[in-house]
């Protein structure tokens, strides 16, 4: 049907207005934003990636080792070896406490880190298997600051010898702490070996630990 131009213009404006209203009111949903965990973090090459490793343990003066005889290690069995090591040490002893090692007792191993002249750990380290330690004590007449242990050293020909190792601690309390830490390491090693079937005899850790006695004084 024919309409005047004015009416057609008004009709067009009305339709356009309604369309604009619809477009204005209709809201499209926003796209979802998904956050992903980073697969890698790139570090600046000029920055250090990690700090130098620090060792936990007790600063001590390693007095050395001396062979000992016998298979039964009871209270006082380390007195003679410790006196021998102590006499050698006092010949070059200084007035201050000359720590030259760091003794770190772990569940299955004992690490003796040797220190340089700056007191920092070097790459040289002696490792002792806790299962081979037959006795330890922190009760010595020559000095209450000495902690010693008897270790079964395996030679190249599969023979073995018993060596007494000794360290001087900063105090009597530090020596006793090492003795208690060694006993705890021995108990953990014993229970692990028993769980793995390497210990078949029916005995408790208290009975076996008599071989690795820690005198508290």
Automatic annotation (TrEMBL):
One of its GO terms (cellular component) is cytoplasm. Its main location: cytoplasm. Residues 208-217 have a biased composition (Acidic residues). GO terms for biological process: cellular response to fatty acid; cellular response to interleukin-6; cellular response to leptin stimulus; cellular response to tumor necrosis factor; mitochondrion organization; negative regulation of ATP biosynthetic process; negative regulation of D-glucose import; negative regulation of insulin receptor signaling pathway. Keywords: Cytoplasm, Phosphoprotein. Residues 130-190 form the PID domain. SMART domains: PTB. It is found in: Cytoplasm. It comes from the Eukaryota. Residues 196-217 are annotated as: Disordered. Increases proliferation of preadipocytes without affecting adipocytic differentiation. PANTHER family: PTB-CONTAINING, CUBILIN AND LRP1-INTERACTING PROTEIN. Found in a complex with PID1/PCLI1, LRP1 and CUBNI. Interacts with LRP1 and CUBN. This is PTB-containing, cubilin and LRP1-interacting protein. It comes from Octodon degus. The lineage of its organism: Eukaryota, Metazoa, Chordata, Craniata, Vertebrata.
